[in-house]
Write a structure and sequence with these properties.
53 residues
Length: 53
C-alpha cells in the first residue's frame, strides 16, 4: 500500500487574510429581512403536514 502520511502541514488562513476575504461582503445584520421572516407561517413546519395528506 502507498504512504498515507501527509508530509506538509495544511495552510492556515490567518485573521488578516480571512478579514480581507470577507471585507467586501455585506454583513447579515445590514441585509433587509423578508417581512414574513420568523413568523409561524414561514417556519416550514406546515410543509410536512401537507405532504402527509
Amino acid at each position: 500500500m502507498g504512504e498515507t502520511h501527509v508530509t506538509e502541514e495544511p495552510k492556515k488562513i490567518h485573521g488578516d487574510k480571512l478579514a480581507e476575504a470577507f471585507r467586501d461582503l455585506p454583513r447579515a445584520a445590514d441585509l433587509p429581512r423578508h417581512p414574513a421572516a420568523g413568523t409561524k407561517e414561514n417556519t416550514g413546519s406546515g410543509l410536512q403536514e401537507d405532504r402527509r395528506r
